[in-house]
């Protein structure tokens, strides 16, 4: 089975499995798990921040980052399709006690900067919440994984800081963005006050995400982690995989993300030749039309089928290929560790056969 539902389906590399089996352990809640401590130091160093925190997931990372930055009743400015808006069960309201002001997004996932400047609340007006945080998502998932540039991140940070508000980057696939842009993680993180990034997506670790920022911010985020039940004990057994992923040697999994990007482009180029597939459309996508492989810059391929989406996915699964239903009636395929060019060629062939099959059986077109 070739599983393209997400880059979360990866299994640990052999080097990770070895490191996990040999990890030196302690109790992380007491701060004495040496493997976790080493991972946090490495993450902070890699992104040029003072401190880091190991958490169970990207959603937890964003949640504790908000707890570290915001007071109850404040407001975050974030994109309308951002993960913290649409995919985290309104944790900002349920747990943090804050609201979100949603920004319209352009097809590349960016905002109009004049609209951003105008989105900050007037702290003198007793009727309005107080703007307390700006949050970007990089890469931006709903725009087909577009990387937000360093210059754009700087511009957003300048506006936020002019309003005395910090910038948080939800970087679930932060290193995909850095690799695609040809910059270091440290450079891309520099304008932000805090960044989260996932170890368990393209970096191929089994569990975990990192939150980085200043020492004071991370101390507050650590309290937030305990509040939401994220205090872990001998968690060095999984943190060891993160140390391997973030290493500079041949076992590190950051540089190899370029392979995933090349494979995603290869897939998009194959799909673009097929009658019956088209561009995604949707909240942060251009209008429906031919699938444009040029939009594939990281490891996401998002598209529509003109006929029944469920039937197409079933036909793919019967051929040993898994993709997933995505937002606004689309389909998403995500390349990752363990998927090579030969697998992509098999996916392209299976997609053509699935299209032919679903057309032949007369599945009605959806309006």
Structural notes for this entry:
With 367 residues, the chain is of the alpha/beta class. It has 2 domains: 12-245, Type I PLP-dependent aspartate aminotransferase-like (Major domain) (Aspartate Aminotransferase, domain 2, 3-Layer(aba) Sandwich); 257-360, Aspartate Aminotransferase, domain 1 (Alpha-Beta Complex). It has helices at 14-22, 34-47, 58-69, 83-86, 91-96, 113-119, 150-162, 174-181, 185-189, 215-227, 236-245, 257-271, 309-318, 341-360, and strands at 2-3, 51-55, 74-79, 99-103, 130-137, 167-171, 194-198, 209-213, 277-278, 300-305, 321-322, 324-325, 331-334. It has a 7-stranded mixed sheet with strand order 2-8-7-6-5-3-4, sandwiched between helices. It has a 4-stranded antiparallel sheet with strand order 9-10-13-12. It has a two-stranded parallel ribbon with strand order 1-11. Strand 12 (324-325) and strand 13 form a beta hairpin. It starts with a strand and ends in a 7-residue tail after the last helix. Residues 362-367 have low confidence and may be disordered.
Globular, elongated, flat, extended or rod-shaped: what is the shape? globular
Number of helices: 14
CATH class of the largest domain, anyone? Answer: Alpha Beta
Low-pLDDT windows of residues: 362-367
Per CATH, the superfamily of the largest domain is Type I PLP-dependent aspartate aminotransferase-like (Major domain)
Taking all Cα atoms into account, the compactness measure Rg is 21 Å
Question: Strand portion, in percent?
Answer: 15-25%
Helical amount: 25-40%
Q: What is the structural class? A: alpha/beta
How far apart are the termini? 31 Å
Q: Tell me the series of helices and strands, N- to C-terminal.
A: EHHEHEHHEHEHEHHEEHHHEEHEEEH
| Secondary-structure arrangement, i.e. CATH architecture of the largest domain | 3-Layer(aba) Sandwich
- Could you say how many structural domains there are in total? 2
**What is the spatial order of strands in the main beta sheet?**
2-8-7-6-5-3-4
What does the largest sheet look like? 7 strands, mixed
Can you count the beta strands? 13
């Amino acid at each position: 089975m070739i599983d393209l539902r997400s880059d979360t389906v990866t299994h640990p590399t052999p080097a990770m499995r070895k490191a996990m089996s040999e990890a030196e352990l302690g109790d992380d809640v007491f701060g004495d798990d040496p493997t976790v401590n080493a991972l946090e130091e490495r993450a902070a160093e890699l992104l040029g921040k003072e401190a880091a925190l190991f958490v169970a997931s990207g959603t937890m990372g964003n949640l504790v980052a908000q707890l570290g930055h915001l007071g109850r009743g404040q407001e975050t400015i974030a994109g309308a399709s951002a993960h913290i808006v649409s995919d985290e069960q309104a944790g900002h309201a349920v747990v943090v006690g804050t609201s979100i002001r949603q920004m319209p997004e352009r097809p590349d996932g960016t905002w109009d900067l004049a609209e951003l400047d105008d989105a900050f609340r007037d702290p003198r007006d007793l009727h309005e919440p107080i703007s307390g945080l700006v949050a970007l998502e990089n890469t931006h998932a709903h725009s087909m994984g577009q990387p937000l540039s360093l210059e754009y991140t700087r511009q957003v940070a300048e506006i936020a800081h002019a309003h005395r508000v910090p910038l948080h980057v939800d970087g679930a696939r932060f290193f995909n963005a850095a690799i695609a842009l040809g910059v270091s993680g440290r450079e891309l993180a520099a304008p932000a006050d805090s960044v989260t990034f996932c170890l368990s997506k393209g970096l191929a670790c089994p569990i975990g995400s990192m939150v980085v920022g200043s020492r004071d911010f991370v101390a507050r985020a650590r309290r937030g982690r305990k509040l939401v039940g994220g205090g872990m004990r001998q968690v060095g057994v999984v943190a060891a995989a993160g140390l391997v992923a973030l290493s500079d040697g041949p076992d590190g999994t950051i540089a190899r993300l370029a392979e995933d990007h090349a494979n995603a482009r290869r897939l998009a180029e194959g799909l673009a030749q097929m009658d019956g597939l088209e561009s995604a459309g949707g909240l942060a996508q251009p209008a429906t039309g031919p699938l444009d492989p040029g939009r594939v810059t990281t490891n996401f391929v998002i598209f529509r089928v003109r006929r029944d989406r469920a039937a197409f996915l079933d036909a793919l699964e019967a051929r040993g290929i898994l993709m997933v239903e995505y937002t606004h009636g689309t389909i998403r395929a995500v390349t990752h560790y363990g998927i090579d060019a030969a697998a992509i060629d098999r996916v392209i062939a299976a997609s053509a056969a699935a299209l032919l099959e679903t057309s032949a059986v007369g599945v009605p077109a959806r309006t």
